[in-house]
């Protein structure tokens, strides 16, 4: 894949430089501390016994054979652990009356999804634990399972009989009630007579985050502080939740997220596996490790997306939007996960996207089923919303016979209208949709591709061409705390950083934004190096250990740079302010005459100066400091932004559809993302490329399919299709830099942009390629079979479910293999 | 992903391997490259008590010419087949097909004989071997060997003519020197097993097809020959229309599976389209 974005001519400082990531050598070679690499003296190993049934009563569990197996230390059931195992929290109850099933790490009486843990086996080696797990004999009494979320809404079969209903919560935003716009039903009624109304129902397929490193947890209870090492995105939230639910004082808990191999939201969970490792290690008084298998990861780590979107869009006959009504049904799975119902609710602020919509209504019904639980997955709520609105803009254009870009242009917020308060109540600070679109269309060759499409259509070519548009925006940062509070989110959105000026010239920086593959160590070093005028190599970024970076709210929602990066800047500024009087004292000058530039304090109008490293050294020995001064120039800062950041971009996709087979081939993909000021273009390009692939994969490949019994069918990478480079094309990636006004670095989030924008661009392109066959939707993932069926008119938009069986490659008894 | 415990043996001679098979019977599994067996063991879908590694038996590896055939040893890796000039010259269909088999890492571990003996109907080697009329040399207990023709080798899903106490030692491929060949594989992602694939090889003289062989991958419980297509093609010009007409019968007699990647009717449709494309490409190259 090529990177073709415009680079800044010649970055003078560190910010804006294409620095290769300093962490990559150890990460790529694996010569580092992945959690599963950790070995502690006397460490025991754990394996889980999981329910094969989606919903069943646990009649009995016979652990005697497992307990008698070689080197087995003990076997635990939910009944054995009782309340000592703690409970898993939902941090975002979206309504006061939300139905939230109690989520025990290991239930004693009833399992609610296939993959739920019913017993835990501890042995001296991982292999012995796994072997013994097969000897645990569980008797189940199967219960009817609530599997299809729409059927579950009827409450005929209950996922949790004690709750009395599968309906967890209904969250509503209405612009007429909020005073941000008109009444949407009136707008729709008016459009039915005088304008146009487009009604569609879209499916958001269920996805699996499929991070590269499976989850792993080691608990060491042998010291005064109980230490949990975990492959998590959220060490600080994990520590808080452990303290809040297990009765251990927070000060006795240290959580370490060593190098973590990817998350995509999938590791922002607090998990049954972590809680059981914690509980059992403490019970045994010995270090204990649990590492999941890939099969367990796919089955039991939380899934993402999974919604039905009933959308009604009203417009005047000239294409001017008059109203947009969104009715979502969102599958939570068996439990309300840590963010859970909050993920689809984030869509409330994004379905209006970049458009001026006079009347708006968003309702989200969350539903409990007997499937794997659902939570954040790269983009979390925003991809779903972007998909819905961008698909609808294309449908509206089609209904009106307009070019889909023209409909967008007619309705988007013009660059001279910022700051702009949207119908869902957010204030967008900046944006220039016109400029990004113009650049994207030129680079894409929009007009030429449209002409080619026309030629292919007229000649009845076997290969038809389609063009898909996605002009997206997103809200990044997951802060400010005040806004999160107003949404009943259980935490704030600030971030913390500290800077320690070491005596030998090194600079130690801690950040509460704990990276799991993003390249924080490089980008944050660039920021600090620039700000303090020290060499890039002198800066060390420490993170992911609650004893080292004691305060933080971790990494998700494209927040690390816009929130965590700003905390760094504030801490650095404090260091400079504290160092200034020392410099003045050593230079025998008045502090008001001291200037700081490129790492040197100098006396204005003279050639006298002293480097910040020398100031740090002088402070260390503390022999000669200003009278009464505390001998420290270290500083920390906690930053809570005033607003989200709002990156945006125009993504254009050209796709070829082989009408004989339904096969899809990407022809060209151009994106122009306005992501504000860029710290490291190389890292940005990596984020965009990876994000695009993940979003394209939702459109074309990935699907978590369950069978009629509630068993995950796509339970290995044979059937859960994650694409590789061989399945992609080179992307035409550009970025623009309209600085964000919500932070001093002028940055916006970029970690999720590609994922959010690309899915609708791809599906719009496919539908556009075959629309003349009477197709107006194809259910995701757009498999060749679905496309072929859509073209041949069988099944609305190829919605017929494909037979839910896995390929049988591994079921059989291979003779020679 | 830890397999259950098993006893591992690595015999260095065929006799030793056969003796171990005789001793352990159905409690033993043979491993060569391990690209199919290891996932089965790691996912604990099977837990044999004995695993017999035939990778150290020298005589089972390599490719040689033997009169009107080329002979491929059972433990020859796919990567070796891919780059072998004898194969390219006399059995171009294999070269074309193995190029699409999984990825480079698997091709360097996985073996030609192992893939055929595993007999996954979605495996990429079965249909080309069938189309080329391969003969399978099987070592029996007591030192004898027997040769089984391709038509009798594949019995059912994951089942071949190899007995429990026998070993596949080599595969003889009749030379198809100068035949055009093409393997048309239909997948959603590159590393996937084919949803359907068609292996076509043919001889043409003056634009007329004189002989054609067409094998189908994943259209039933074994690799299949599209005999009706082969017959219709014989004597036809290698034109789009003639080939299209002949390939309409590609799915005749097949019994394709329905799974996440496609229902049976879609696979039947694919078989006709892919057969046409494979035959036309084979005729062109």
Automatic annotation (TrEMBL), chain A:
<dbReference type="GO" id="GO:0016491">
    <property type="term" value="F:oxidoreductase activity"/>
</dbReference>
<dbReference type="InterPro" id="IPR016208">
    <property type="entry name" value="Ald_Oxase/xanthine_DH-like"/>
</dbReference>
<dbReference type="InterPro" id="IPR000674">
    <property type="entry name" value="Ald_Oxase/Xan_DH_a/b"/>
</dbReference>
<dbReference type="InterPro" id="IPR046867">
    <property type="entry name" value="AldOxase/xan_DH_MoCoBD2"/>
</dbReference>
<dbReference type="InterPro" id="IPR037165">
    <property type="entry name" value="AldOxase/xan_DH_Mopterin-bd_sf"/>
</dbReference>
<feature type="compositionally biased region" description="Basic and acidic residues">
    <location>
        <begin position="808"/>
        <end position="817"/>
    </location>
</feature>
<dbReference type="InterPro" id="IPR008274">
    <property type="entry name" value="AldOxase/xan_DH_MoCoBD1"/>
</dbReference>
<dbReference type="InterPro" id="IPR036856">
    <property type="entry name" value="Ald_Oxase/Xan_DH_a/b_sf"/>
</dbReference>
<feature type="region of interest" description="Disordered">
    <location>
        <begin position="794"/>
        <end position="817"/>
    </location>
</feature>
<dbReference type="Pfam" id="PF01315">
    <property type="entry name" value="Ald_Xan_dh_C"/>
</dbReference>
<feature type="region of interest" description="Disordered">
    <location>
        <begin position="1"/>
        <end position="23"/>
    </location>
</feature>
<dbReference type="Pfam" id="PF02738">
    <property type="entry name" value="MoCoBD_1"/>
</dbReference>
<dbReference type="Pfam" id="PF20256">
    <property type="entry name" value="MoCoBD_2"/>
</dbReference>
<feature type="domain" description="Aldehyde oxidase/xanthine dehydrogenase a/b hammerhead">
    <location>
        <begin position="29"/>
        <end position="144"/>
    </location>
</feature>
<protein>
    <submittedName>
        <fullName>Xanthine dehydrogenase family protein molybdopterin-binding subunit</fullName>
    </submittedName>
</protein>
<keyword id="KW-0500">Molybdenum</keyword>
<dbReference type="GO" id="GO:0005506">
    <property type="term" value="F:iron ion binding"/>
</dbReference>
<keyword id="KW-0560">Oxidoreductase</keyword>
UniProtKB/TrEMBL annotation, chain B:
<dbReference type="Pfam" id="PF00941">
    <property type="entry name" value="FAD_binding_5"/>
</dbReference>
<dbReference type="InterPro" id="IPR005107">
    <property type="entry name" value="CO_DH_flav_C"/>
</dbReference>
<dbReference type="InterPro" id="IPR051312">
    <property type="entry name" value="Diverse_Substr_Oxidored"/>
</dbReference>
<keyword id="KW-0274">FAD</keyword>
<keyword id="KW-0560">Oxidoreductase</keyword>
<dbReference type="GO" id="GO:0016491">
    <property type="term" value="F:oxidoreductase activity"/>
</dbReference>
<dbReference type="InterPro" id="IPR002346">
    <property type="entry name" value="Mopterin_DH_FAD-bd"/>
</dbReference>
<dbReference type="InterPro" id="IPR016169">
    <property type="entry name" value="FAD-bd_PCMH_sub2"/>
</dbReference>
<dbReference type="GO" id="GO:0071949">
    <property type="term" value="F:FAD binding"/>
</dbReference>
<feature type="domain" description="FAD-binding PCMH-type">
    <location>
        <begin position="1"/>
        <end position="178"/>
    </location>
</feature>
<dbReference type="InterPro" id="IPR016166">
    <property type="entry name" value="FAD-bd_PCMH"/>
</dbReference>
<dbReference type="InterPro" id="IPR036683">
    <property type="entry name" value="CO_DH_flav_C_dom_sf"/>
</dbReference>
<protein>
    <submittedName>
        <fullName>Xanthine dehydrogenase family protein subunit M</fullName>
    </submittedName>
</protein>
<dbReference type="InterPro" id="IPR036318">
    <property type="entry name" value="FAD-bd_PCMH-like_sf"/>
</dbReference>
<dbReference type="Pfam" id="PF03450">
    <property type="entry name" value="CO_deh_flav_C"/>
</dbReference>
<keyword id="KW-0285">Flavoprotein</keyword>
<dbReference type="InterPro" id="IPR016167">
    <property type="entry name" value="FAD-bd_PCMH_sub1"/>
</dbReference>
